[in-house]
Specification:
Two copies of one chain form a homodimer.
Chain A (H helix, E strand, L loop, with lengths): L7 H10 L16 H12 L2 H12 L1 H12 L9 H13 L3 E5 L5 E5 L9 E7 L13 E3 L2 E3 L3 H20 L7 E7 L9 H8 L7 E7 L6 E6 L1 E10 L3 E2 L9 H12 L10 E10 L5 E2 L2 E10 L2 H25 L8 E10 L2 E2 L5 H12 L5 E5 L4 H5 L4 E4 L4 E3 L7 E3 L2 H18 L3
Parallel strand pairs in A: 3-6, 3-7, 7-17, 8-16
Antiparallel strand pairs in A: 1-2, 2-6, 4-5, 5-19, 8-15, 9-13, 9-14, 10-12, 11-13, 18-19
């Protein structure tokens, strides 16, 4: 996941820029005012059941932290989430959910039945199982007081543990909801997964036609509500050439040079701050041996924007850079044994969109943030919510509470100091319960 | 291996440039004139035994080709030569050599005793077992008439098979020599091996104090005599940075950019044609995932020159480029989470040097080339001979005969059409026998 922090006014502006007038966003529910949302959340929070659930989260806090550590230490690289998924499925079962299962894509889930008729609308709350870190990354958790350090611990393993805490708290408090709630640990949120987990959930899964609202809990920051979907385009470009002996074939074109020029030229692009637009030259590989001119070098890049227009512009610039880099290398060195060429493969493509600001799920989540004592930070991001948003299903991405930083870096960390951690958890719990009554 | 083709006059010039006056090159034997060398080679070639040996190579030609294919199809990446080494050791044994063994480094060898006293001087002829191609490369030989296509087939697998042909031919012809001849299949000639096989042979091996002359048979071209050692410097540079989320941490320094700048700037260097000086940006890797700013990207480069001064100049330029690329990236993007740095590791360092042109091994090999009907092409290269040359031991690298091309590329090939193939083989045989009588 990642999301930008931005005041609500700016989001409204951005949604207007995206052409998302309220009338166009069907299926996101009847508009709700901020005052109505505040009342709905207050109704939830003022029940003895809610108080009892929060008291249980407090008592259960050490266990939630322990489960965060247990799950973090089960590696879950993209497409290799199975071991962690099996462990999490067992935890969902132990927490007392029904219909616990792993679907064909590898998502695991369990249902908490509401009081409404079976087969009715479902509110989903999901956290993703995968991390960005490749096989072999040391995922041992290092603890310093309340600070826990490990790759993937905040993005998104803590959220998995918080969902388990919610299930146990709701049961301990004997809280019932009208709608069913589906708790999900999903695969494929990060990079190469390209949202395969939620894509399956919404297009193939057994609940696909019943999902009335979707929360993705991703990252820690509790005041943040991600209702805008940042679009992305990702490429893997393979530069190919004839290759040859570094000394004997000296002077032949080198695909490494075309890759280097592409990296340098892409890193010269300046992007607008608003709408936020970013790129990264991120992964690279190739070559035969140190004493050979390589015959193939591949490069992966990531481009994102809150604006489809800016994304399209960046995309076009990148493709032109690749072409120019190839032409430049073929003009600079000998093509006697063959030219350099580039094979461009689109490996990720996420649509830009938004759940509108006055949709009930956004209003209610903002009210839950306020009720916990925070100021809501609305923003856009590239998270599992992109998928339901692209399908017109109400969705936001929320935080798991506590603090954290350095997501996607080896020195990623979270702080589980209890007051802040617990306070943050109440946001998701109140928003979930309020949406389960609508 | 690789070697440049150059007329003898140019080599003399180059040796003078290198400061290798005759008096400095000790241990390479008493000077020999071209006429004396021609007489010595004629003495060998005019014996009935030599004629019988060549007749045997002719009859044995299909087997030599079959063994070339068998050995080529056993993958032998750098540091993974063991399977091919074991197969070759069995072939050395089957060919009837004595004292067949694998040494501690993985070289395999067998002795053909001469008529001189046991423990006397030994003439070594070696071919290297390793190829540049990594694990998983398809090494299946594709045959089209007399043309055989496969990675590593000419560099240097054919030479291994030709050595076996020599052993059988000498035995069939009942040819004896004064000196012992050691037939070697050695490891570690290519790139990362950094001459570990011959280094062991000359500094640790059981014959290390007995080697009077060294032939490396490497590549096909029979007229070529490599007596100059092209020096090389090889680096693996690891660019490191803080890493982070491609969207959330956008704006942080990216080690990929520093790598890209290094590749682009190095590929802008122009090097002199004479003394031949080359470089290659050859192997690259790194990155966490497509949606992360990488925390480490490594790059391997190869630099070579016939001149130590030019090599030192190139080396300095490269190191300055790396420094400037790192500084540029740190000046261009944010170092808030840490700067980009470069860890520079020297992974290969071969000295420049030469066996002087009037040393017996060079004169005799040139005479053997002429006697077969070719014009000698003296030159410099980076081959197993670099090691003995650096130790002052007479050494040249010669060809296995036939024709070939595209060494170090996946479309490497050789042509085993018999007249040319056989004619080429007589060069090494005559030179070897003449040196074994000195």
């Amino acid at each position: 996941m990642f999301r930008t922090a931005r005041p609500a006014a700016a989001l409204t502006l951005s949604l207007a820029l995206l052409g998302c007038a309220a009338g166009q966003a069907l299926g996101q529910g009847v508009d709700l005012s901020a005052a109505e949302a505040d009342r709905a959340v207050q109704a939830v929070r003022s029940t003895p059941g809610f108080t009892a659930a929060v008291a249980h989260l407090d008592r259960d806090h050490d266990r939630i932290v322990a489960e965060t550590i247990t799950l973090t230490e089960i590696p879950a690289p993209p497409f290799q989430e199975a071991a962690r998924a099996r462990a999490y499925m067992a935890m969902l079962e132990a927490a007392g959910l029904s219909d616990v299962e792993m679907d064909a894509e590898g998502n695991v889930m369990g249902l908490r039945r509401g009081t409404g008729p079976a087969g009715g609308p479902v509110v989903v709350i999901a956290a993703h199982l995968d991390t960005v870190f490749p096989e072999g990354t040391d995922v041992t958790v290092r603890r310093e007081g309340t600070k826990l350090h490990a790759p993937g611990i905040g993005d998104d393993t803590r959220s998995l543990a918080v969902l388990l805490g919610y299930v146990r708290a709701l049961d301990a408090a004997k809280l019932t909801t009208t709608r069913d709630i589906l708790f999900v640990g999903n695969v494929g949120e990060e990079g190469p997964g390209d949202l395969r987990g939620v894509r399956h959930l919404f297009t193939q899964g057994r609940y696909k036609d019943r999902i009335a609202a979707f929360f993705s809990m991703d990252g820690t920051l509790a005041p943040r509500i991600t209702s805008g979907a940042v679009g992305s385009r990702r490429y893997r470009v393979t530069f190919k050439g004839p290759g040859g002996h570094s000394y004997g074939a000296y002077g032949l074109v080198n695909p490494m040079a075309a890759m280097g020029t592409t990296v340098v030229e892409m890193n010269r692009i300046t992007t607008p701050l608003r709408p936020r637009t970013t790129y990264a030259t991120s992964v690279v590989g190739g070559g035969t041996s140190v004493n050979s001119i390589p015959d193939a070098i591949w490069l992966e890049v990531d481009m994102r924007s809150e604006s489809p227009q800016e994304l399209a512009r960046l995309d076009k610039q990148f493709l032109a850079i690749v072409d120019a880099a190839v032409q430049q290398e073929n003009a600079t060195r000998s093509t006697a044994a063959g030219p350099v060429s580039a094979e461009v493969k689109l490996i990720g493509d996420r649509p830009t969109g938004a759940t509108r600001e006055n949709a009930p799920i956004v209003r209610i989540t903002a009210a839950a943030v306020r009720a916990a004592g925070y100021s809501p930070i609305l923003g856009s991001g590239s998270t599992d919510s992109n998928m339901p948003i692209s399908l017109g299903i109400p969705a936001v991405t929320i935080g798991s509470g506590g603090t954290g930083g350095r997501a996607h870096a080896l020195d990623e960390w979270i702080d589980v100091a209890k007051p802040e951690s617990l306070k943050g958890m109440t946001v998701g719990l109140a928003a979930l319960l309020a949406m389960a009554e609508r």
